[in-house]
């Protein structure tokens, strides 16, 4: 089934378009998992009925020792406001802001980039867009596993970020084969996702209790502003390119056919811009509510 709006054909299922189903499929697992966590995950190991008494005692002792060690490393107990003024927390927030900016520049605009540069069919574009997220999934599992096995966090956070930055920088070299570009964007996705398990463990290395929790929320809020920053920058660049190409369009002799095509293209561009704005706004709201 399908529908046509503003000259654009959309496939539908139960009167919902594909992009609407994407948000449903994206959100439903999170809601289900949230309910499961709320029911079965306890606040403390001592309350976990699915652990033996010995396991509960060992975990409680280990958590107490880790808490004392973090307080010693931090020079004593820090309040939430002291933690938010901590230089390390501010640097983590700044780093996360730039990472999110680059990451969502790829996630939001990769279909547009590949379509403008290589003009693939919709079917081919759909398949190749699956490759970078699969690479990111593998990278997150691998980095998270090795970080837990070695008990090392800093390098497991920094090295993937560096790899992602190099991959993103190399994508700026134009006129590369499509295969090469997909590999570079996959490397970028791996780098900008695989660091997450180790990165969110960093505040707990030098902060404790509410200070760590509040700092994580602060870092997340500052970083998520990068989504809006990315959208603004990319849309400014696209508008700039549109106006630079406008004089070349005016050189052609106007005809009824060309005017109709330009009207259709203009309407299609406005539709894409509205959809992009709504998508970016939805992502910002959902990430801030996490």
TrEMBL record:
Keyword Transport among UniProt keywords: yes
One Pfam family in the UniProt entry: MFS_1
Swiss-Prot/TrEMBL keywords: Membrane, Transmembrane, Transmembrane helix, Transport
GO molecular function: transmembrane transporter activity
Entries under InterPro entries matching the protein: MFS (IPR011701), MFS_dom (IPR020846), MFS_trans_sf (IPR036259)
Annotated membrane topology: Multi-pass membrane protein
Transmembrane segment boundaries: 21-41, 89-112, 124-143, 155-173, 180-200, 212-237
Cellular compartment(s): Membrane
Protein name, as recorded: Major facilitator superfamily (MFS) profile domain-containing protein
């Amino acid at each position: 089934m399908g529908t046509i709006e503003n000259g654009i054909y959309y496939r539908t299922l139960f009167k919902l378009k594909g992009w609407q189903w994407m948000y449903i499929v994206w959100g439903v697992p999170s809601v289900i998992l949230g309910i499961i966590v709320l029911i079965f995950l306890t606040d403390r190991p001592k309350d976990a009925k699915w652990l033996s008494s010995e396991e509960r005692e060992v975990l409680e002792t280990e958590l107490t020792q880790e808490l004392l060690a973090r307080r010693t490393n931090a020079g004593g107990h820090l309040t939430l406001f002291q933690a938010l003024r901590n230089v390390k927390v501010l640097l983590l927030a700044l780093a996360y802001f730039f990472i999110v900016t680059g990451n969502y520049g790829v996630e939001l605009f990769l279909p547009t980039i590949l379509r403008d540069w290589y003009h693939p069919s919709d079917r081919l574009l759909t398949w190749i867009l699956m490759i970078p997220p699969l690479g990111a999934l593998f990278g997150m599992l691998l980095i998270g596993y090795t970080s837990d096995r070695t008990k090392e966090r800093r390098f497991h956070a920094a090295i993937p970020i560096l790899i992602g930055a190099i991959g993103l920088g190399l994508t700026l070299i134009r006129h590369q084969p499509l295969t090469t570009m997909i590999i570079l964007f996959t490397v970028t996705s791996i780098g900008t996702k695989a660091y997450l398990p180790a990165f969110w463990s960093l505040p707990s290395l030098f902060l404790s209790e509410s200070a760590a929790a509040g700092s994580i929320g602060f870092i997340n809020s500052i970083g998520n502003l990068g989504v809006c920053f990315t959208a603004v920058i990319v849309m400014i660049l696209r508008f700039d390119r549109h106006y630079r190409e406008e004089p070349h369009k005016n050189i052609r002799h106007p005809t009824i056919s060309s005017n109709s095509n330009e009207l259709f293209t203009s309407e299609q561009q406005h539709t894409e811009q509205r959809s992009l704005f709504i998508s970016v706004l939805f992502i910002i709201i959902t990430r801030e509510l996490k």
